[in-house]
Amino acid sequence: MSGRIRSVTTGTATLPLPAPLRLGPMEIREREYAAVRVETDDGVVGKAYCLTRNAPVAACVDRLITPHLLGRDAADIEARWDDCYRANVFVGRTGLVIRALGLADVALWDITAQTAAQPLWRHLGGEDPSVPVMMVAAYPVAGREPESLAADVVRYASEGYRLLKVARSADAGHMRRLLEAAREGLPGGTKIVVDAGFGWRTPEEALAELPLWGETPLAWLEDPLVPEDAAGCAAIRHGGPHPVGVGDEVTDPGTYRALLDAGALDVLRLDVIAIGGVTGARRVQALAAEHAVPVSFHVYPEVSVHLAATQPGTMVETFDQDFPGGNPFDPAHRLRTERLNIAAGHAIAPDTPGLGFDLDWSLFR
Predict the structure, then answer these.
(1) 122-363 has which fold?
(2) According to CATH, where is 3.30.390.10 located in the chain?
(3) What is the pLDDT of residue 22?
(4) Angle 96-115/277-290 helices, nearest 10 degrees?
(5) Within 10 Å of residue 125's Cβ, how many Cβ atoms?
(6) How far is CA 258 from CA 142, 145, 234, 247, in A?
């Protein structure tokens, strides 16, 4: 049995990027992360972290989540989730409060699995710790030509990655050159995902631009519109040349139901923190399974690998942990004291109790 929750501590860390990134309508110059550390009265510590997207995530945990956790049983996670959700029903049924709740929920699952002396994936009923990986290979960066970015994509393919993601550039000619150069060097069976980053406002804009990219087939086109536009995403799926994956940053399961009901998804993208932690993610995994739609997890691979191991065919997303000087897109691996075992296109969930990693708390303030 886990003990009662004695303390909840939060912190925020900021890691600058070597060059600004463009993703859809956003320019990203640094990555900011929030973290939570939950300790029980018998000394077990759970942890979690997330991208803040420049929102006050730690403050939401402190003010809206922590008061409903302290002194309560850490083992009854469903009850803790429901306590926090209901206590914030006026302001937090979706959005930032669910992200804050997700942090606390992941930490509680970490505690529960540690107490059970099992890695989380096994505690959740998983049997095979090997999970396919999508490598984020290229973002548009000032000063880099498409052919140079394509060389990065081809290099990752040569290392055994068979699913590679690049971010959309608003310059359709750039995209055509990137995709054609990558296609020429990719081995058979390798596929590319293009992350549009919610970059189009309407399906008509997307459908007008996609033919300008040439004829390179995609594994899927990711997040062409905001996920709440289920009808628009369905129009792109049925009227465009590529399968469609949607779901990054979704905080409301109702959004997924609408997308599935509209026939808008070939792949369901799932963010374990944004959807309310392990508890929320498992509910969406069950929903995807009901509709026979595969799941691809968004970032946080050292957490999502545990969930993916419970559902064969589920993918996790990662950034290169070995990039010299730190990954220029998302250096989150610098926050962790242990590395996730990723090689040749697969991640291996750790065999140590709980999540199997800790955070470098000296980086958080």
Answers:
(1) TIM Barrel (3.20.20)
(2) 5-117
(3) 78
(4) 100
(5) 9
(6) 37, 39, 10, 11
20-38 tens-digit pLDDT: 887 777 788 999 999 999 9
CB of 216 closer than 8 Å to CB of 183: yes
CATH superfamily, domain 5-117, is Enolase-like, N-terminal domain (3.30.390.10)
Cβ neighbours, 10 Å, residue 286: 10
> Are 166 and 153 in contact, with CB atoms under 8 Å apart?
yes
- The answer to whether the beta carbons of residues 83 and 21 sit under 8 Å apart is no
Indicate the helix (H) or strand (E) that contains 283: helix 277-290
For residue 179 the two structure tokens come to 């995709």
- Give the number of residues written for the chain: 365
pLDDT, tens digit, for every residue of 289-307? Answer: 999 999 999 999 999 999 9
Query: What separation in angstroms does the CA of 31 have from each of 55, 65, 304?
Result: 12, 24, 20
Which H/E stretch holds residue 17? Answer: strand 5-23
Query: What pLDDT score does 210 carry?
Result: 98
**Residue 44 in contact with residue 111, Cβ under 8 Å?**
yes
Q: Quick one: pLDDT at residue 1?
A: 55
**Can you list the residues of the chain whose pLDDT is less than 50?**
none
Backbone angles phi, psi at 268, to 5 degrees: -95, 120
Q: Which helix (H) or strand (E) holds 38?
A: strand 26-40
